[in-house]
Amino acid sequence: MNNHTSNVCRYLYFHIRALHHIRQALTDDMAKTVAASLIHIRIDNANCLIRGTTNVKKLQRVQTSVACVVLPNLSQQPATALLSELHWLPVNSRVTFKLVCLAYKLLITSQPAYLHMLLHHYMPTCTLRSTNQSPEYQTFTHFRHLQTPSENSPFQIAHQHHTMLPT
Fold first, then answer.
1. I want to staple 93 with a disulfide (CB 3.0 to 4.6 A). Which of 15, 89, 111, 137 is the partner?
2. pLDDT tens-digit profile of 31-83?
């Protein structure tokens, strides 16, 4: 995975340098759009596999670098302020959000089937207060036991952060 991340970073830094050369000719909105389309597609590629590793730090540096190119007048600000100005999530939060959204869609639509087969819905033995709530919320709150035992599996991560989802 280190080789993959290094190649992605090298590719992205090449495009960041190219964007830096043409930045003065672009409006702020155009620069934001170009940067988001170039950077986020590559950062999102296989992102659930790199969660929690040192590779996330490399990708976070890339994201911070492109934020400095897009917002040159704010480049002395902290990285969190730059990302906030662009309405971008940090890489780690972005990965978590995408996994939680995937789990939510999987529970609501049961699609794709190959992932839905990995789920085992938890059915409580006694009546809970949440049984009076909407079915979507019940399904997700009872989503406890998974057939994939790994603590770092995408479904375990999604379950740990399920409060990010709409109810």
1. 89
2. 999 999 988 888 888 777 777 677 888 999 999 999 999 998 887 889 889 99
Give the pLDDT confidence of 98-145 residue by residue, as tens digits.
Answer: 888 887 888 788 788 887 777 766 666 777 776 666 555 444 444 444
- Residue where a domain stops, chosen among 88, 111, 133: 88
Long-range pairs for 113-118: beta carbons < 8 A, 24 or more residues apart: 118/146, 118/147, 118/148, 118/155
Within this chain, do residues 55 and 99 fall inside the same structural domain, yes or no? no
Number of domains in the chain: 2
